[in-house]
Amino acid sequence: MTDFFKSIPTITYEGPDSDNEFAFRHYNPDEVLMGKRMEDHLRFAVAYWHSFAWPGGDPFGGQTLDRPWFGDTMDLARMKADVAFEMFDILGAPYFCFHDADARPEGATFKESQRNLEEITDYFAAKMEGSKTKLLWGTANMFSHKRWMSGASTNPDPEVFAYAAATVKGCMDATQRLGGENYVLWGGREGYETLLNTNLRVEADNMGRFLQMVVEYKHKIGFKGAILIEPKPQEPSKHQYDYDVATVYGFLCRYGLEKEVKVNIEQGHAILAGHSFEHEIATAASLGIFGSIDMNRNDYQSGWDTDQFPNNHAEKALAFYEILRAGGYTTGGTNFDAKIRRQSLDAEDLILAHVGGMDTCARALKSAAALLADGSLETLRRDRYAGWESEGARAMLQSDLTSITADVLARNVNPQPKSGRQERLENLWNKFV
């Protein structure tokens, strides 16, 4: 035990009228919605990097957080893990997620870094034996160290590609060892700054082959979880290859991976790509590649990803509605890829940020579930497309332009506009949020 969270109680559900800030007002893990416990719907995960490795910096200022486990030794890495699992237990968090670099110190060589990862993986495994918290997903940090400045799998240097391949293998092994339910590839540097020094075909082909290798290794070791790509636009590279869900799907199809890989969608990245969170989720679901989400929000007055904890349940309800429409998570979950503000220095701030985020998501889920159970919105949606259920409409899709033109002339077709009823639907939505 450490004393970092001393005097902070285990967080329990007390209901919407509670005045206890160290209690859930909306997140009741055992509440049943649509035949499933709320905990099993939401599958919350704590992000190891933001909660325990982030020092409080931003693009214009350095470290503000002073944590007793900050440093580059295995003893401090073990202390970090002790604190992390204490927080998981306080929150009752069912899952966590981590990058290799969050959990272990960087070694002087790859061999040393890998040994450190294996040691901390064993330490995680021992901690997990006494905790309800499981691993939602593991991943590799292939963006922070200077070796990744020109990409990982897209790097013009084959030695960096090799280092990236070895790094991912080690992280996949760690994820498998810990019973992780997914493995995520986060292409933070898979993009370019200028075409003057870039060969787009070589970089795309190498990235595609790298992902094929990842899938091949998944099957070789018998990993039962999903392989996920996290779409990410313009941060930090100017032109990201994994810009949004649609771009990722096109990439997967190009390299024959659309049946093997799904997406982990982050709210902040969706906004940076010029989309809404719910758009990206719905697009992924329609393409059959929806996997998991990173839950956060952006400061809409800033032009970059601020990774703040969610606090607007009405905004998040649209996202959860699309998740429920898609059938909910399978191996995925709701990972808080969010960090406290650099002025929020106390242990209490870290706990309360997660309490608020979990309550926001729970309230959003309840609104989404109520509307879906009501059925009105889906009925109106089906009515709008009812014409396509006719025999004639289905036959037209199997026809050709010449035949369709002949039919239009014969029937003297002159269709008139029909209202999309957007305001009516928005009013319906607002009844539930």
Automatic annotation (TrEMBL):
GO terms for cellular component: cytoplasm. Its EC number is 5.3.1.5. PROSITE patterns: XYLOSE_ISOMERASE (PS51415). Binds 2 magnesium ions per subunit. One of its GO terms (molecular function) is xylose isomerase activity. It catalyses: alpha-D-xylose = alpha-D-xylulofuranose. Keywords: Carbohydrate metabolism, Cytoplasm, Isomerase, Magnesium, Metal-binding, Xylose metabolism. The keyword Aminoacyl-tRNA synthetase does not apply. The keyword Metal-binding applies. It is found in: Cytoplasm. Mg(2+) 1 binds at residues 230, 266, 294, 337. Homotetramer. NCBIfam families: PRK05474.1 (NF003998), xylose_isom_A (TIGR02630). This is Xylose isomerase. The lineage of its organism: Bacteria, Pseudomonadati, Pseudomonadota, Alphaproteobacteria, Rhodobacterales. The gene is xylA.
